[in-house]
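Hi,

I'm pasting everything inline rather than attaching a file, because the server keeps stripping attachments. The sequence lines come first, and each chain or strand is labelled.
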Amino acid sequence: MLRSAILAVSRNPRLERLITAAPVSRGVVRRFVGGTDTATVVESARGLVASGLTVTLDHLGEDCIDRAHAEAVVGAYRDVLDALELAGLAERLAPLTARSEVSVKLSAIGQALPTDGHQIALEHAREICAAAERVGATVTLDMEDHTTTDSTLEVLADLRADFPATAAVLQAYLHRTEGDCRDLAVAGSRVRLCKGAYREPASVAYQKRGQVNLSYVRCINVLMASGGYPMLATHDPCLIEIGMQRARFYEKSGYEFQMLYGIRPHEQLRLAEMGHPVRVYVPYGAQWYGYLMRRLAERPANVGFFARALISTR
Ligand code: FDA
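And the predicted assembly:
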C-alpha cells in the first residue's frame, strides 16, 4: 500500500515542485543520485573507482517527447563520456569490460516516438556506442517494460555487429527470460540480470517474490555455465551468495556484481575487497525526482531515511 501511495505522490506535479525545491531534498538526492550535472557525477565516479569499484552512468530523464529531445540525450551521453576520458576513468580493463560504462534507456533516445521509433533509437544508440568505443568505455542497454523487450533485443543484436561489448539486460520476473538467457549465453556476451522493476501483468511475468527469485537462480545457472559475461544486478544477499557459489562451481573468471548507487554501499565494498568485481549503477542529471521516488517505493524503509533527513534540518 505504501508503495502505491509513494508512486501516486511521484505523479503529483505540485508535490514534485515542492520536494524538488526543498533544501532538505539535497541530502537525500546526494545519497541516491551521483550528481545533478556532468562534472559532479564524474567526481562521484572518481570516488567509487578510487575505492576499487567500477561504474555505469545513467543519464536521468523523463519520457522522450520528440526527436530534438532524444538528440539532446545523446549529446549528454557524449559529454559525460568525454568527461570520463578527461578524468582518466574510461579505460578498458579487458576486451569486454571497462572501468566506466554508460547505461542507456532506449525510450530516452527515441524508441517510443510514434514514427520510426525503433530505427531512431538504433541510430542514436549507435552514436553513443561509437562515442563510448572512442574513449574505451562500454554501453549497456537498460531494459524497460515488456512491450519493449523484442525491440530492445533487436537493437542489441544490430549494435553488437559493430560493438560486441554492448550489454543486454534481462529481467528474471518475465516468463520468457530463461529462454532469452539461453539465447544470449554465448561467448563474450555481456548480460545484466536483474529482477525487473516494472509493474507487469501475470500473462507475462511472475507475480510472487519466490517465483521471481527462483527464475533469477535458474538464469544465474544458465549464464554462469556459459562463455558469456554475467552481470548480477541485485542487492539480495541470498542471490549474491548463490551467484558467488555458482561462479566458484563453474570456475568462472569473467563476471561481475552490480548494485545501485547509495544502496548497500558497505556490501559493494565488502564484495570488491573479497575480489569480486563490483560495478555501481550511478544515475545522474537534473531530472532525479522520478528515479528517487521509484527507489523509495521499492523499499519503503528508505522513506524513514528521507523523513529523518527532513526532521534533522529543522
Ligand atoms: P529486492 O529489492 O527484492 O531486495 C531483496 C533484498 O535485498 C532485501 O530483502 C534486502 O535484504 C536487500 N536490500 C534491498 N535493498 C536494500 C537496501 N536499500 N538496504 C539494505 N538491504 C537492501 N530493472 C529493470 O527493470 N531494468 C533495468 O535495466 C534495471 N537495471 C538495474 C541495474 C542495476 C545495477 C540494479 C542493481 C538494478 C537494476 N534494475 C533494473 C532494478 C531491478 O530490477 C530491481 O527492481 C531492484 O534491483 C531491486 O531488486 P533486488 O534484486 O535488489 O532485490
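The first strand starts at residue 54 and ends at 59.

If the labels don't parse on your end, tell me and I'll reformat.
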